[in-house]
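User: Predict the complex with Palmitoyl-CoA.
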Amino acid sequence: FTHSRSSPSCSSSVQLWTLPLPFLSKPRDFSVPNSSWGPEMMRLYEHYNSQCEVEMEGGGKREGLWRKLPSYNRILKYATGGVYLSKIIQSKARLFTRNIREPGAAFEYVLFANSEEQKCVGIFQAGHLLEGPPGHVHGGAIATMIDTVTGTHASMLSGPVMTANLNINYRSPIPLGSTVLLESCLDKKEGRKIIITCKVMSTDGSKVHTETTALFLSINVCHLLERA
Ligand SMILES: CCCCCCCCCCCCCCCC(=O)SCCNC(=O)CCNC(=O)[C@H](O)C(C)(C)COP(=O)(O)OP(=O)(O)OC[C@H]1O[C@@H](n2cnc3c(N)ncnc32)[C@H](O)[C@@H]1OP(=O)(O)O
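Assistant: Here is the predicted structure with Palmitoyl-CoA placed in the model:
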């Protein structure tokens, strides 16, 4: 893949969006267990991870219904950068959810996708730096979790997207340090619009913390980069 400063070479947004995938050096996947993950985080991780591969009768394995999505601390860092991307590559930009080095201090999370059911789930453990009301998670941090799961889901369905609207109903507060399960479902796709619903729930499913409808719009990444 090559590209130059001018935008015509960047006319295929899908082509650019796939840039982070063929890495030159293997990037670190942050969505794997670390010592800060509590028992609930581990339990849910193992629950979905065990459904990524299914054992067959003959002893072999085949792909399961779920797929674990890797998560890096940058989106474009590993692209083969030409002049066109240099401003971004040289910057110190980091993905908002992956910019605290101390394990467990902020967002610990892992996402799984089920393409057959057009579903995505996120398992999040909210660390002490995410406090809002005393002892509970900040509403903006909760919105970030929702945006991460629904935004990833929308981009899996439609390529590059931007969040146009997040309509969140906060039903019950999330205790700091706890683990929550986010379930994202495709509602509908209409042209460039992708509408996704998402629930944040306690890990046993007994409590709904938030309910969200999210609107994403497919974009041409080149237009975004030209503004950077
Ligand atoms: C393989 C996959 C791997 C995945 C690996 C991904 C890794 C990634 C992980 C990170 C995942 C985190 C995901 C974060 C995602 C952000 O955080 S994005 C940052 C926050 N969002 C923004 O900053 C967006 C700012 N807004 C904009 O840039 C522009 O308004 C938009 C959203 C691009 C839309 O602009 P536009 O393309 O010019 O569209 P426009 O013509 O205005 O509207 C088109 C249609 O949408 C409607 N519309 C537009 N906005 C709205 C709105 N707010 N409400 C209702 N309708 C609207 C219009 O009415 C119009 O409708 P129709 O008339 O066609 O029926």
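Residues 139-158 form the longest helix (20 residues).
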